[in-house]
């Protein structure tokens, strides 16, 4: 276990990085604190009983508005956790240049214990509480999916919001991660996992970084372990496999499966759906606990489940060369210290899993502009490309193959633009963090470098806003 609470751990990492900046201590203190905390208890009728539901929404920073961050449903939800996650959202948004302040929400329930109808009641009531206190809205605070929630819950939130705010033209932007039919954007579902892949792929392209780790350049052929087959883990696994890496182990809360030859995440996912567990998946070795899987020798380890899974106790046994934090806060500060000594590269959460909020930003922009990405330019681009290609073919009297023709002529659809915007965002952020780290060799790890980037951006924004005397 860690010596720190989760928010304490985030604050500790913040302080470690703040030393490498020259901002006024008052500004640093303001950035660190959670600006607004809303703790609520509300009754919901479950069967013939009334249950008191505990829930939270924390707005960590208002240096940019709206605030942004997911809502999780889990029995582990508590104020400390929501505060820590809200703070991480502020830094995450700053790093990827998404103009939001950080926020997070949570309801302390086990969603598996309720029927969909009961969950809908809980979600709608929670939304009504947020509306009452002005803690939700396209210009104030915009929730999204997180652990234990998804598109369905976001649709309930939107519907509750629009029914209580009739006629609000930008209402669809009050929540992101919605189904596409309800104003969602194509590509949001896989965004976090895809961002994890883009981020690690970029790091793996850096010759000097790979050389230091004793690894070859590129993700191709790298042996990867993913912990958590939820939305983030599943998609990260998929993109790593499609990118040429080998998934040697997939871990779930009730155990893990190992296969040196490589696994296919979709087959494992379907097996789990049918059998309720990944246990006994054919031609694999079963590992009784998820924690053991973290200690298997591999090139890249992606913890994509919950916080605090690698701490001072088990970190010395972790053999991965690169750890990519798909989840928020999977490593404790004590684990960070161990990996600084072993030279393991920890690619930190608040940059690596920022793909979700990046595409949420695209979704929010789509909602405010009331038009699907690609609608205006797709046909124009295709006509232009056809014209250019036709002219070249006429001039050269040669014809391209039909496959090449299709590729050249293709005008961008919504998903193409979202993927491209996400790729650009992750590549830019990777270089920004790495360049800062390389320019200051005193900075001990990539997490600290990422925090310095985030602090500089948030502090600049505070300084430019002006602080009242
Ligand atoms: N819950 C996700 C995260 O932790 C996404 C947040 C969002 O899209 O606003 O980054």
CATH architecture of the domain at 8-182: 3-Layer(aba) Sandwich
Question: What is the CATH class of the domain at 8-182?
Answer: Alpha Beta
The count of DSSP E runs of length 2 or more, i.e. the number of strands, is 12
**The CATH topology of the domain at 8-182 is what?**
Rossmann fold
- CATH H level of the domain at 8-182: which superfamily? Leucine Dehydrogenase, chain A, domain 1
- Main β-sheet: number of strands, strand sense, barrel status? 7 strands, mixed
Strand portion, in percent? 5-15%
Strand arrangement within the widest β-sheet reads 9-8-7-6-10-11-12
Helix content: 40-55%
Distance between the termini: 43 Å
- Uncertain residue segments: none
Succession of helices and strands: HHEEEHEHEHHHEHEEHEHEEHEHHHHHH
CA-atom Rg in angstroms: 23 Å
Alpha plus pi helix count: 17
What gross morphology would you assign? globular
How does the helix and strand content classify structurally?
A: alpha/beta
Q: Overall mean pLDDT score?
A: 96
Ligand identities: glutamic acid
Task: List the topology elements.
Elements: H1 6-18, H2 25-32, E1 36-46, E2 49-59, E3 67-73, H3 79-95, E4 101-107, H4 116-132, E5 141-145, H5 151-164, H6 191-204, H7 207-213, E6 223-227, H8 231-242, E7 246-252, E8 255-258, H9 265-275, E9 285-287, H10 290-293, E10 300-303, E11 322-324, H11 333-342, E12 345-347, H12 349-352, H13 355-369, H14 378-396, H15 402-409, H16 414-439, H17 446-465
The structure holds glutamic acid (GLU).
